Request: fold
Amino acid sequence: MNKKDQIFESEDAYLKWLRKSKGLSKTTVWHYYNYYKDFVKQDLSQANINKYLQQKKNNFVVRSFMKSFLEFLEVSNQYVIMKKPSGKIKKRIIRDYTQDQILKVSAYCYKKSLRHGLMFDILYHGALRLDELISVNVNSFDWNEYFNDPSKHCKLVVIGKGKKHRPVLIPPATIDKLLESYLANGIISGDLSKSEIIDKLSTIDDPLFHNLYAMRIWLDIKNNSERSIGIAIRPHELRHTRATELEKQGASIRSIQHYLGHSNPQNTEIYLHTTQKTSLQNIRNIID
Reply:
């Protein structure tokens, strides 16, 4: 068990509360823990809270940690969290990518290794967050539904924010590559019947990708895209690109909202980069 797993499974009262009562992800608990272990070394006072926030540049994560910690101690009404620094912060531009660029990066990833290719395809087609990809197990796929009609996209259930489960769809070609690797590695055998294969895959509760962590995915996507199309794609941009592509194909904002796991449709609208020209064509297709 690595350090992050140990922290996430810790029986420390605060960390346990973050995990069970707040439903925070492993990565978020890890970030809060790094602030928590330093802050608890000093007495709880307004002066120490202000000093600590200033030391950590009063960024969003340390402010969120402090709010959660005061809530855990049930003293939120006794202390004040300093306001965020004023002034506009330059936001990072979210770029949209063409399907040709996505296909080129995907092909490069598969050329590098099957693991890289599967990671990219599942991340993109499922419009997943990094933590969601890490949480995917072999039995997260609906193998029964897939084997009943292998020509259709395979349903994959992922664990999103707040430990909420949601289904996404992965293309048959990607699933075929995954099954080929299972045959090659002896996880399943060609001698097994369809029902036996379904039963076996549905009982494997192991991670789809072993020893996978967020920074590793981020670096792999960045490096592979930079070498294949000359642009360093950030993984979160793939969610935006997938959302825009689904809208172009006719999916409603409400449907895309559920697919991305957003609680508010206004968040989904931010992800859609449809141009005025495309919007007009969509309307024309409907009314004509």
The first strand starts at residue 154 and ends at 159. The two ends are 59 Å apart (CA to CA). DSSP finds 16 helices and two strands in the chain.
